[in-house]
Write a structure and sequence with these properties.
The complex is a heterodimer of chains A (about 180) and B (about 325). In chain A, about 40% of the residues lie in helices and about 20% in strands. Chain A has eight helices and seven strands. In chain A, the strands form three sheets. Chain A has a three-stranded parallel sheet. In chain A, strand 4, helix 6 and strand 5 form a beta-alpha-beta unit. Chain B has a six-stranded mixed sheet, sandwiched between helices. Chain B is globular, with a radius of gyration of 23 Å. Classes of the chains: A alpha/beta (about 180), B alpha/beta (about 325). Chains A and B meet through strand 4, helix 6, strand 5, helix 7 and strand 6 of A and helix 7, helix 8, strand 12, strand 13 and helix 9 of B.
């Protein structure tokens, strides 16, 4: 079984190369992962496609001139929303977000944070990879700290402080 | 001779919406190995790019041998004796070692033809300096390991007679034995009078080779100390304390039961990773750049081949490869 079929999806860090087809429309990018379900015989179910897109973009508060706009013309924050839309329409059980707020402005960041809460509210498990300490401390229920390909610490919400996280992230002197 | 070979004063650099560097100072003594340390986003990379002539500072002055330099291009930086080993290797893989070393400044004979022999012999000598006597200068680079390619980059820097060698996390992608070789080489270069600015997250290495450490945080200069005087705890304290702006919605999350468990997965870059995830949980993965967070996910998803371990989703084993 492939990961996507088991309901695990990844929104990659490099959304411009791995997450989106920039020269394609919002519609195309949103349904690309579920095209198989929308096509019957040789027909594409346009009605269903439109419903899916309207629903998800309302949920994500996507700002775009139309659904035929090419995603390269969207702002960084809205591009990130299209990446989220693309995976959310597959009804995932686990959503892995790799640096979801890199390169987007503060306002858009705040929106993404709200969306993350909404997504977990639906029962989805979210794995948030982040290099932003404040993000990790404020949003996460638990945090695994990684160093040199190994997990060096697990911290619960009460123990989340910059100091502790950094100690695990950087390692001590001499006990390698 | 002047005490400082490289001195930065009040360097500020802004990008739209962010101040990446805010009145940074940095003093590098002649012949020392100086560590630059800071969390992700502290401004190290921006600072290196300024020294390499890739970015231009908004304000501030760079002094080399106490002479102010306008670092307006990569060429100026090279001419002032700065050489940077970037985190990502920048060799042309389908060219030979000697062509890579002399790329852009191939030696010529009087009649204008390429002086192969000079190139070959000079390269041979450089390879000897870094302890790679077993390599031939006319070998292609693509067959070499990452560690060796890095050495070739160092050779290239040496061939330009650089005075200041900047190494941006050179050990991030090396195995333990290779790290040792590199550290040894750094010490040798220091003996030869090369000054090194060493960017690393690994305290072991820093405390082994460096004399002094400069800490950056949030684009600001926090301080410079000798390794003897800077205890581990104090170093951590210097690194933390970023301003947390309150842009976060209140944390109202109530995770459910565990439904996903990863046991002991391994891949080329991931070692025995186990973790679990609850329904509706926001589970963080924090690590410094290159720590392997994305690689864990890649192994999990079968993008990178995982060698062992298993993954349970709703108590059912799933196969991913």
């Amino acid at each position: 079984m492939e990961a996507t079929h088991s309901g695990i999806v990844l929104a990659p860090e490099d959304r411009k190369h791995e997450g989106l087809i920039l020269a394609q429309t919002v519609t195309f990018n949103t349904v690309i992962a579920i095209l198989g379900k929308l096509i019957k015989g040789i027909r594409l179910n346009y009605k269903r496609q439109e419903k899916i897109i309207t629903d998800i973009s309302r949920k994500l508060r996507l700002k775009t001139a139309s659904y035929d706009t090419k995603v390269m013309n969207l702002s960084g924050g809205n591009q990130q929303k299209v990446v989220l839309a693309k995976w959310l329409v597959t009804n995932p059980q686990i959503l892995i977000l790799d640096e979801p707020t890199r390169g987007i402005d503060v306002g858009a960041k705040q929106e993404i944070y709200k969306l993350i809460y909404e997504i977990v509210g639906m029962g989805v498990g979210v794995i948030l990879i982040s290099s932003e300490m404040p993000e990790v401390i404020n949003l996460c229920d638990r945090v695994y700290v990684v160093r040199e390909g190994k997990i060096t610490g697990l911290l619960g919400r009460k123990d989340l402080s910059e100091q502790t996280i950094l100690k695990y992230a950087i390692g001590g002197i001499g006990h390698e | 001779m002047d005490k400082y070979i490289l001195r930065l004063e009040n360097i500020t650099k802004s990008f739209p919406g962010v101040k990446a560097l805010d009145s940074i100072k940095l003093c590098i003594k002649r012949g020392e190995i100086h560590a630059l340390i800071g969390e992700n986003g502290a401004g190290k990379s921006t600072l290196i790019k300024i020294l390499a002539g890739i970015y231009h500072p908004d304000t501030g002055t760079i002094y080399i041998d106490e002479v102010p330099i306008t670092m307006d291009s990569v060429l100026t930086s090279q001419k002032s004796g700065i050489s940077v080993i970037h985190q990502e290797l920048s060799l042309a893989e389908n060219m030979t070692i000697m062509e890579n070393i002399y790329l852009g400044r191939i030696p010529r004979r009087k009649n204008g033809l390429v002086d192969d022999r000079k190139m070959y012999e000079d390269t041979k000598r450089l390879l000897h300096t870094v302890g790679l006597d077993d390599l031939q200068p006319d070998e292609k680079v693509e067959k070499l390991s990452v560690a060796k390619q890095q050495m070739i980059e160092i050779c290239r820097s040496l061939s330009t007679n650089c005075k200041i060698l900047i190494m941006d996390e050179p050990t991030a992608s090396l195995a333990a034995a290779e790290v040792e070789t590199l550290i040894k080489l750094m010490k040798q270069l220091k003996e030869k009078g090369v000054t090194i600015l060493f960017i690393s997250h690994k305290l072991n290495e820093i405390y082994e080779v460096c004399e002094r450490i400069t800490v950056l945080r949030d684009g600001k200069y926090i301080g410079t100390e000798t390794v003897e005087e800077l205890s581990y705890d104090r170093l951590i304290n210097m690194m933390v304390g970023r301003e947390i702006t309150n842009i976060f919605p209140p944390h109202i999350n109530k995770p459910g039961e565990v439904f996903f468990a990863v046991n002991d997965i391994c891949s080329d870059k991931v070692r025995n990773v186990s973790f679990d995830l609850r329904k509706g949980e926001i589970l963080g993965f924090y690590g410094l750049m290159g720590s392997g967070r994305s690689e864990i996910m890649r192994a999990l998803l079968g993008i990178d081949k995982s060698k062992k371990g298993d993954i349970l989703l709703n108590n059912e084993k799933i196969r991913i490869n």
